[in-house]
Design brief:
Elements (H helix, E strand, L loop, with lengths): L11 H13 L15 E4 L4 H9 L12 E6 L5 E5 L4 E4 L4 E4 L10 E6 L5 E5 L2 E5 L3 E5 L10 E6 L5 E5 L2 E5 L4 E4 L18 E6 L5 E5 L4 E4 L4 E4 L10 E6 L5 E5 L4 E4 L4 E4 L10 E6 L5 E5 L4 E4 L4 E4 L10 E6 L5 E5 L2 E6 L2 E5 L1 H6 L2
Antiparallel strand pairs: 1-9, 2-3, 3-4, 4-5, 6-7, 7-8, 8-9, 10-11, 11-12, 12-13, 14-15, 15-16, 16-17, 18-19, 19-20, 20-21, 22-23, 23-24, 24-25, 26-27, 27-28, 28-29
Helix pairs in contact: 1-2
C-alpha cells in the first residue's frame, strides 16, 4: 500500500519536497476498478492529481479542511476523521491530513455518519453506500449486496456486535455476511407532500438499557427492545416528528433534536421542550453532545451553538465566530478539546473562545 509521507511539524516544507518525489514515481492516476464498489476491498492508493492539488502547494492560512464538516470521529489510535459533504473523509494524525474519496477507494464524497467498532474497523455511512476501513483499505457495500439504499445516513454497532444502518429507504442490519431489512413504518407525508423518503432514518443509538432508538424523518422516534417496536411522536409530547438526532445523557435522559420543533428531553415518563423562552435560539437542531464535564452542547442551523449546564443555556453565534451559523457536528477528543464542525469548516473551543482550525494549522501540527 502506498501512503502519503507524514509531515514533520518542525519543517513543513520538507513535506512538499517528499511529496514531489513520491509523485514522480506515479506515472498514471490510480482509479478504483468498477467492480470494486460492491463488497470488494480496495487498498488505499493516493490519486496523484488529488495529492498535487491538496498537498504539494502549501495551503493558505484560512483554507478550510472542507466547507461542510458533517461528522467527526476520533479513533482508537487518536486520529481524528472529518466526514464532509464534498471531499469524502479526511484523517488527521496530529501532523498531516490525508483525504479519502472515490478516487482512492472510498465509496462517496459525502459522509453521513461514522463509527469505530469493537475490532477497530471504522464504518462509514455515505452517499454511495457503506465503506468499511480495516486499517489498510476500504470494503464497499451497496444495494447490490442487499443494503436498503445507497444513501446512508446513520450507523450503529450494538452491544452484541450487530451493525445497523439507517438509509433513505429504511434500516438494514448486517451480521458480517449479509444485510437484512429491519422494517420500520413509513412516515405519513400527507401534510408534507414536498417531502420524499418517508422511510429515511437520520440517527440510530443504543441506550443504557439496550434499546435501539431510531430517529425517523417524519414519524417520530421508534424504540426496539429486542422484541417489539414502539413509537414516540408528537402525540406523546415529542417536540416534532422530524427527528434529526438523539443523545442519552449521563443521567439516562433522552434528548431529541428536531427539524422544526427544536429541542426536547424525555425522562422516561414525560417530555420537556426547550425553545426561545429558555434561551435556545432556533428550531432546527442537528447535533447534541454531552462533554466529559456534563455540559450538553446543541448545534443548530441558522443560529449557532448552545451549551446547557443543567439550568441555563448559553448560546454562541456568528458574533463569537464567523462559522458558527450552521453547526453540524461536535466532538470532544481524548484531551478534552472540543471540536465544532460547521458549514464553514472546523472550529475549536477553548478558554471561552472559538478559533477556526484550517489546513495550515493541520500542517503545523497544532
Amino acid at each position: 500500500m502506498l501512503h502519503v509521507p507524514r509531515l514533520h511539524a518542525g519543517n513543513p516544507f520538507l513535506f512538499a519536497i517528499v511529496t514531489v518525489l513520491l509523485m514522480s514515481s506515479c506515472t498514471e492516476q490510480v482509479k478504483t476498478p468498477d467492480h470494486a464498489t460492491s463488497g470488494t476491498t480496495v487498498a488505499v492508493q493516493p490519486d496523484s492529481a488529488t495529492l498535487a492539488a491538496r498537498l504539494m502547494q502549501r495551503p493558505g492560512e484560512t483554507e478550510q479542511i472542507s466547507q461542510y464538516i458533517r461528522r467527526m470521529l476520533q479513533d482508537h489510535e487518536g486520529n481524528i476523521w472529518f466526514g464532509t459533504t464534498s471531499d469524502g473523509v479526511a484523517r488527521y494524525n496530529g501532523r498531516s491530513l490525508e483525504y479519502f474519496t472515490p478516487a482512492n477507494g472510498f465509496s462517496s464524497n459525502w459522509v453521513g455518519s461514522m463509527a469505530q467498532v469493537a475490532n477497530g474497523d471504522i464504518w462509514f455511512a455515505t452517499g454511495g453506500g457503506v465503506s468499511r476501513y480495516d486499517g489498510s483499505g476500504f470494503t464497499n457495500y451497496t444495494t447490490k449486496d442487499g443494503l436498503a439504499s445507497d444513501e446512508v445516513w446513520s450507523v450503529l454497532e450494538d452491544r452484541n456486535g450487530g451493525l445497523w444502518f439507517g438509509t433513505e429507504e429504511g434500516v438494514s442490519r448486517f451480521d458480517g455476511r449479509t444485510f437484512t431489512p429491519f422494517p420500520i413504518p413509513a412516515a405519513d407525508f400527507s401534510e408534507h407532500p414536498y417531502y420524499k423518503y418517508p422511510k429515511q432514518i437520520n440517527c440510530i443509538i443504543e441506550d443504557k438499557s439496550g434499546n435501539i432508538l431510531f430517529a425517523s424523518n417524519g414519524g417520530g422516534v421508534y424504540r426496539y427492545d429486542g422484541k417489539a417496536l414502539t413509537n414516540l411522536s408528537e402525540k406523546d409530547g415529542l417536540c416534532n416528528n422530524f427527528v434529526q438526532t438523539i443523545m442519552e445523557d449521563k443521567s439516562g435522559n433522552l434528548w431529541f433534536g428536531t427539524r422544526y420543533g427544536g429541542l426536547c428531553k424525555y425522562d422516561g415518563k414525560a417530555f420537556t421542550s426547550y425553545g426561545r423562552k429558555d434561551g435556545v435560539l432556533g428550531d432546527q437542531i442537528w447535533v447534541i453532545h454531552q462533554d466529559s464535564g456534563g455540559t450538553i452542547w446543541i448545534g443548530a442551523s441558522g443560529y449557532g451553538l448552545c451549551s446547557y449546564n443543567g439550568s441555563v443555556f448559553t448560546c454562541y453565534t456568528e458574533q463569537d465566530a464567523a462559522g458558527l451559523k450552521n453547526v453540524q457536528s461536535i466532538l470532544e477528543d481524548a484531551n478534552g478539546q472540543l471540536w465544532i464542525g460547521t458549514s464553514s469548516g472546523v472550529y475549536r473551543y477553548s478558554g471561552g473562545t472559538f478559533s477556526n482550525w484550517t489546513k495550515e494549522d493541520a500542517l503545523r501540527g497544532e
